[in-house]
Amino acid sequence: MAISEKMLGFSTRSSWIRKMFEEGAKLKIQYGADQVFDFSLGNPDVPPPPQFNDVLLELAKNTTPGQHSYMPNGGLPWVREAIAARMSAEQGVAIHHGDLLMACGAAGAINVVMKALLDPGDEVVMLAPYFVEYGFYVDNHGGVARVVQTDADFNLDLGAIEAALTEKTKAVIINSPNNPTGQVYPAAAIRALGALLEEVGNRFGSTIYLISDEPYRKIVFDDCQVPPIFHLVRNSIVLSSFSKDLSLPGERIGYVAVHPEADDKGPLLDAMTLATRILGFVNAPAFMQRVVAELQEVSIDTSVYARRRDLFCSILSDIGYRFLPPKGAFYIFPQTPIEDDARFCALLQEERILAVPGRGFGSPGHMRLAFCIDEGYIARSAPGFKAAFDRAQR
Ligand code: PLP
Predict the structure, then answer these.
(1) Which residues form the Aminotransferase class I/classII large domain (predicted)?
(2) What is the spatial distance between Cα 106 and Cα 321, in angstroms, rounded to a whole number?
(3) Are 227 and 28 a contacting pair, CB within 8 Å?
(4) 107 CB under 6 A from ligand 1?
(5) Cα separation, 224 vs 218, whole angstroms
(6) Where in the chain are the domains?
């Protein structure tokens, strides 16, 4: 076969979410879509805010030549200015538009950063449970992913992170609010991580960047605050997208910023700009850049996710599931009542409930439930969650 063996191997490794997707499709045909409780996909179902459509329609009227042309690889300067202004307030550090690039979603941004940082064999530390694509993105650019477990509360385990750092470590990537746990790292933990990376980098004579992947920053509950990374860590890179907070995942629009005082900021930004071009993105979608520039202070109605979280938490805890209530994003990551998470997800499937086994995120013994689905489904899934829980106890 002509297909790359590496890719064939990857398709096996990435099979959990795909498997759930396929199983879900089968169940939906068999029982009808409204009889299947699909918590497997983090695909936002909350509509974009009304301002999105207003801006979209208004900008579509602009027929000035050049609206859809190629542009500087980093994106339209005035769009970057709008993002830099909002980020400056959010991150507690003055950011110039030249410190950031527009990207094809957070995923595109991570690839641009990895391309800019990694030589073959360089290492990136990622924390389990992790966003499954990180490993692939690191590999795309010849890097090696080093997985470090978080602690029992899914918080940073600095000792374990330190033990994983080597002279080849280029970066540690964190994601908060987290997919799949919904947890948010406190400021003190991030500050301590930054200090650790600085100290170890000095020992090795290298720079270890903290990469913060934060597409869920605006989706938080109970007044939870997501700490500003730039304010806490100098050698940091912050990237995000509008996939979740404006519900635009299909539009592939995001950005990445380098701390204004980071080591080698200029060459890093130049390399990221070149990476945007040579990875074939060329630039982030022009029309969407113009749209999001107008929507920097707008986000989806997060109270919808908050209500779902409350309902889901109360159903699961009444049954006896053990979990940390999410502080943000739209996922819950409960322990499975039996150690074999895949087996437990199969029991749930018999109740027409789709969940993703924690092993798919590097944390077996758990399952991820995404609440990108109407509250009614969550309410109606309660008997199924109870039945599978009871069967697992036998
Ligand atoms: N990072 C995390 C933690 C995610 O959960 C996702 C998407 O689910 C991404 C990055 C990719 O986001 P985007 O669609 O903006 O590329």
Answers:
(1) 36-377
(2) 32
(3) no
(4) yes
(5) 10
(6) 5-48+301-393, 70-293
Any ligand 1 atom below 6 A from CB of 243: yes
Q: Report which of 328, 292, 324 is spatially closest to residue 308, judged by C-alpha positions.
A: 328
Give the position, in ligand 1's atom list, of the atom nearest the Cα of 110.
10
ipTM: 0.99
Confirm if 173 and 316 have CB atoms less than 8 A apart: no
- Per DSSP bridges, beta strands 236-241 and 254-258 are antiparallel
Q: Residue 30 class from Cβ within 10 Å (0-12 exposed, 13-18 middle, 19+ buried)? A: exposed
Is the domain spanning 5-48+301-393 CATH 3.90.1150.10? The answer is: yes
For residue range 287-335, what is the model confidence (pLDDT) as tens digits? 999 999 999 999 999 999 999 999 999 999 999 999 999 999 999 999 9
- The architecture of the domain spanning 70-293 is 3-Layer(aba) Sandwich (3.40)
> Is the entire prediction scored with pTM above 0.95?
yes
Look up residue 61 and give its two tokens.
């009227």
What sign results for the dihedral spanned by CA atoms 163, 168, 174, 180?
Answer: negative
Task: Determine if ligand 1 sits within 6 Å of the CB of residue 131.
Answer: yes
